[in-house]
Amino acid sequence: MPERWETELGKLATLEPPPRIRARIDEGPRGEGVPPMPGRGQRIAAGFVALSVFAGAAAFALGAFGDGRTVGGGTGEPLVIRLDLSKRDPVAIFEFDGVRLEQASEILSDPPQVHEAFPVPVPVGTPIEIQGGSERWDVMQAVGEVMSVEDLATRFPETMLLDPLPGSLIPDIEGTSALSVSVPEAAGDGSLNFTIIVDIYRPGNGAVAEVPFLSGTMTAPDDGSVPQLQLRYGDVVRSIHPQGGNWLGGPVGWDLVLQSFPAVPLGTQVAFDGDVHEVTATLRYGTTPESPTERLKDGFADLPDVPGEYLIHVTGEWPQGTAEFTFLVSLRDPDALTVSWGDYVHAVFGDQDVELTEIPGGDPLAVDPETLIVRTIEVPERSDMWAISDTDTLAAWLQDDGGSKAPFENLDFPRRAAVFRDAPAGEFFLILQGAQGRDVLAYVLRLRIVPSATSTEGVPAPADELVATLEAPVDGSLPTITLAYRGEEQVFTTCGGRWNGELLGCLAVLLSFGSSLEPGSTLVVRSDTDAVEAGLTVLDQDLRSTDETIAQRHMARRHGGALRRDHRR
Amino acid sequence: MATVERAQTEPEVGRPATADFDALFREEGPRVYRTMYAFTGGRADVAEEATAEAFARAIAQGAALRDPLAWIYRVAFRVATDEVRRDRRRADPVEGITAPPELLGVVDALRRLSPNQRAAVVLHRVLGLPVEEVATRMGVAAPTVRVHLHRARARLRDLLGTEEDD
Q1: Domain B2-160, what architecture?
Q2: A17 touches chain B (CB under 8 A)
Q3: CA atoms of A551 and A562, how far apart (whole Å)
Q4: Domain boundaries along the sequence of chain B
Q5: Would you say residue A65 has pLDDT above 50?
Q6: What is the pTM of this model?
Q7: Complete DSSP assignment for A518-539
Q8: Domains plus CATH for chain A?
Q9: Can you give the pLDDT at residue B1?
C-alpha cells in the first residue's frame, strides 16, 4: 500500500495544462534564444579585464589580512574540476569532499541547462584545480569564474574571475555563487561552459553543511583490471578489494580477509557511484551469517541509527563482468556509551573500554560488590547509553544501591538493541540480562554518571583519590611518575620501556607507596603523554603478582581517568 | 516515450512537420507541465510559460534536435529556473502560486523541498521515470538524483505522513 505522501504526490497526475497553452506555443518563442558565444578576441579581452579585477580583489584581500596570508582558511583539499572532453558530449566533473558531480557543457544542452547545486559547501580559500583536456582542447586555456547566482541568469560568459593556473582559490564571497569553467571550442570561436552552484562559507562561521555521506565509487580501470571500491567519508578514504565476481570471463579471486572502514556516525547516508551499469547492495545487521539483512534500495540508503558492527555487501555490474565487495563498517555515537554483547561484553565510551562482569547464574540479585569484581566506567550527565546484543532476548537497566531500576527502552530493530537517553548524574549498576537458547546470562558494570561541567584537570584531588602524574621533563630526560594521596607525595623512576631509542632497565626491587589506601579509593592518572595505559594488579601476601588485573584502561592525551577498587584485599 | 524514439530515428535533415510536435505535445505536454508545476512549487503561471516556451523553441529548432523531448525538458527547466529566480526579488514570493484544493497539501509540501529535490521526485515518482532517465532530464549524474530523491522522500514523509489514515 502506498504511503500517504505517495498518494498525495500521485494527485499531481490529475493536473492538466490550461487549454490556452496551445495558442501560446503557436505564438512562437518569446525568449531571446541562445546567447551567442563571444568570439575568441572578445573572450581573450574579457579574460584580461576580468583577471585584472581578480588581481585587484586579491590585492585587497591580502591587504586586509596582512602580508603573505592566503584568503580564508580552507583545509587545503582542492576542488577538482576534471574536464572530459573526449566524449561526444563533453563533461566536467566537479569533486570536493568526497562528492562528485558531473555536469554537461551548456553549449550542447542548448540553451543552458539547469545548473546543479554542489551538495556540500566549499570553504573560502579552497584551491581550484582544473585537470583534463584533449588534443583539441587544452586545459590550460580554460578559464574559471565565480559569480553571483543572480548574474548567472542574464550573463554572457564575459566576467572571468579565476585563472586555472596554480594558485586560484575560492574567493572570499560568502554565500551562494556560481562556479563556471569555460574552455575554448575546438571549431569556431565559441566556448564550452560548465557551471555549478556552490555554497561558499568562511571556516569558523558555521557552514550550512549538509551531513556528509559515505560514498563508494566503483570505476573499471582502462587497463582491464578488476575495479576496486573506493570508500570515502569526509577525509577518510579506503580502497576495498573485490572478493568475488566474474571479470572478463574469469572468476575474481576470493580473499577471506574482512575489510573494514573506520567508524562513522549513526544514520550516515551511503551512496554507491561510478561507471557501473548496476549496483546492488545489502546491509547485514551484524557479522554472523544468520544476522538479518536488508537490501539498500538503488544503492543509496540511510545506515541504521543504532550503533554496532554492520557488513555491507556491494555488487557492481559492468559489461566486462561483475565485482563483489564486502566490508565492515562500525556505526558509533561518539557521545554515547555503547555496551556490546557479542563474543564478550564490553562498554565503550570515548577512550574507555571496560569489560562487564558476568553475574553468577544470570541472577541480577546476586550483584554483590564484596564478592564480585565490578569495573567502573564514567560518563557525563545527560549521555545516551546503548545496549546491543546478539542474544535471543535482551533486557538492560540501571540499578541504584537501593535496588530501584530504570529500564532501557527496547527498540524495534533486527538485532537486540535498547537505549537509555539523557542519563541523570549518580552512581548505578548497569545490568544486562539476556537469554541465549535455554541459558540466561547477566552482566554488570558500575556506572558513574558525573555532572557535565566536572573536569578532573586542575581540580584538587579529593581525599579518596590516589593521583598519579606522569610527565616527560622538557629537558628530554626520563619521565617520572609522582603519586600523591592525602597530601603525601612520592616520586618513582621508570621501570622498563624505551626512551630515545634505548631500552630502559628496571630495578629488581618492588617499590611501594608509603600510605595505605582506603578501600574504594580512586586512582587518577594525569599525563602529558599521547596515551596512558594503567592497570591495578592484585598481589598475594608475599607481594607476588597473582596476574589478576582488576581494571585496565587506555586514556588519551591529557585526559584524566579513574581506576577503582571497591573491596578490601 | 514512443514519440521520442520516433523523433530520434528520423533523418536529421529538413524540419519535421509541426504535426509531429503536436503529437509530442499531446503525449508529453501535460507531463512537462506537471513537472514544471511541481518544480516551481505550484507556480502555475511559470509552469505554463516554461512549458509553452520550451515547445515553441523546439518547433523553431525542428530537426536540429537529436532528442526533442529531453531538449524540451531542459529548456523548460531553464525557463522556469530563470522565472523563479527573477521572482525572488518580488515583494510577495508566494504570489502566483495557485493550486486546486485537492493539491494544496502536496504543493505546500513540495514548496518546502529544494528545486532539485522537487524535480527529481516528480520525474521519478509522478512521471515514473527511472533514475538514469531522471538524471538525463535534469542534466546531472544518477547518484546526485538518488541523493535528491532520498532527501525528498524523507522530507515528504515528515510533511505528509506515511499512513493513509494520518
Answers
A1: Up-down Bundle (1.20)
A2: yes
A3: 10
A4: 2-160
A5: no
A6: 0.40
A7: PTT-EEEEEESSSEEEEEEEEE
A8: 40-201 (no CATH), 216-332 (2.60.40), 337-450 (2.60.40.10), 465-564 (no CATH)
A9: 28
